[in-house]
Design a protein that fits this description.
The structure is a single chain. The chain has helices at residues 4-18, 44-54, 173-180, 187-191, 202-212, 225-246, and strands at 23-28, 57-65, 68-75, 94-99, 104-109, 119-125, 129-135, 141-150, 153-156, 286-290, 293-297. It has two domains: 4-159, MutM-like, N-terminal (N-terminal domain of MutM-like DNA repair proteins); 173-297, Helicase, Ruva Protein, domain 3 (Orthogonal Bundle). Helix 3 (173-180) crosses helix 6 (225-246). Helix content is 24%, strand content 24%. The protein is elongated, with a radius of gyration of 21 Å. The strands form three sheets. A five-stranded antiparallel β-sheet has the order 2-3-4-8-9. The protein has a four-stranded antiparallel β-sheet with strand order 1-6-7-5, covered by helices on one side. Bound molecules: zinc ion (ZN). Zinc ion binds at residues 278, 280-281, 283, 298, 300-301. One of its GO terms (molecular function) is lyase activity. Keywords: DNA damage, DNA repair, DNA-binding, Glycosidase, Hydrolase, Lyase, Metal-binding, Multifunctional enzyme, Zinc, Zinc-finger.
């Protein structure tokens, strides 16, 4: 599952190719992509509704919060003459939300290029390019949503409950540490709670706890604040490090997406390293189920207190 660094790598590529373009048309090749994992039966009116909502819209930019990514849209505006700060037409009201799910990819193509057989939706752009959503297993989603205010900025309605992520300006580390310090669950579970801090998934939670030397079962309410600060700082750092290498695989007409490994895999210290020696102390890395998810940690570097 792509986490923040993987989604951000994709967002950067998508933004580079789509910001400032106008959508001249859209095709939904498989209506299931407009649904969600709990509802994949989509009627024809949803397809025509999607196509008419996006056709003629202007893409301001590709945005992201946590693992959510969207294209913010302005409808039918001539932005060539509009003042981006003061003009009301430049304020986006709709967004195209894109969930990559497990296997989703966004790719940029020229119009005549072969359509990959798992292509589910296509946006035609006035830049003579196409943004194609390819998703082999259909765990992903694309859809139009109103933008609403959530944690200091406009976000798609379904992301309104998602807290700011550590790489965005709206992130307030002191406030998050304050909230984290009230939690009586395992710190591993708290880090995965997207309403507290977004973007951290299983991989980076395990890596952050290792870097901070904190056991995944530590209870935040009984942990020193300086250690909670260290965990959040480690999460920010490890995701930044991953992003730095994830961004390198973007090339010409291909928007990179494979969230499963990327180049960061060789830098992982504990995630899925159970049974191998800790890089720091040589103790065998352990694995334990916490809150239904596998946690990987060094029993010596991350002692329970
Ligand atoms: Zn160790």
């Amino acid at each position: 599952m792509p986490e923040l660094p993987e989604v951000e790598s994709v967002r950067r590529g998508v933004d580079e190719w789509t910001a400032g373009t106008t959508i001249t048309g859209a095709e939904v090749l498989d209506p299931r992509i407009l649904g969600t994992t709990s509802q994949r039966r989509i009627d024809a009116s949803a397809v025509s509704g999607f196509v008419s909502a996006v056709t003629g819209a202007h893409i301001l930019k590709a945005e992201r919060r946590g693992k959510f990514m969207w294209l913010s849209l302005v409808e039918g505006a001539d932005l060539s003459t509009a003042d981006p700060v003061t003009s009301p037409v430049s304020r986006p009201e709709l967004g195209i939300l894109v969930h990559l799910g497990m296997s989703g990819q966004l790719r940029i193509h020229s119009p005549g290029e072969d359509i990959h057989r798992h292509t589910r939706a296509v946006l035609h752009l006035d830049s003579d390019r196409e943004l194609r959503f390819v998703d082999q297993r259909i765990f992903g989603h694309i859809g139009v949503q109103p933008l609403v205010h959530g944690y200091g900025r406009l976000v798609p309605a379904s992301a309104v409950h998602i807290a700011a992520d550590p790489l965005e300006p709206a992130f307030d580390p002191e406030a998050v540490v304050g909230e984290l310090a009230k939690k009586r669950t395992a710190i591993k579970a708290a880090l995965l709670d997207q309403t507290l801090v977004s973007g951290i998934g299983n991989i980076y939670a395990d890596e952050a706890l290792f870097r901070a030397g904190v056991h995944p079962l530590a209870v935040p309410a009984r942990t020193r604040k300086s250690r909670l600060v260290a965990v959040l700082e480690s999460a920010t750092k490890v995701m930044s490090d991953a992003l730095a290498v994830g961004g390198t695989s973007f090339d010409a007409l291909y928007v990179n997406v494979n969230g499963e490994s990327g180049y960061f895999e060789r830098s992982l210290t504990v995630y899925k390293k159970h049974g191998t020696p800790c890089k720091r102390c040589g103790t065998t890395i352990a694995r334990e189920k916490i809150g239904g998810r596998s946690s990987h940690f060094c029993p010596r570097c991350q002692r329970r207190r």
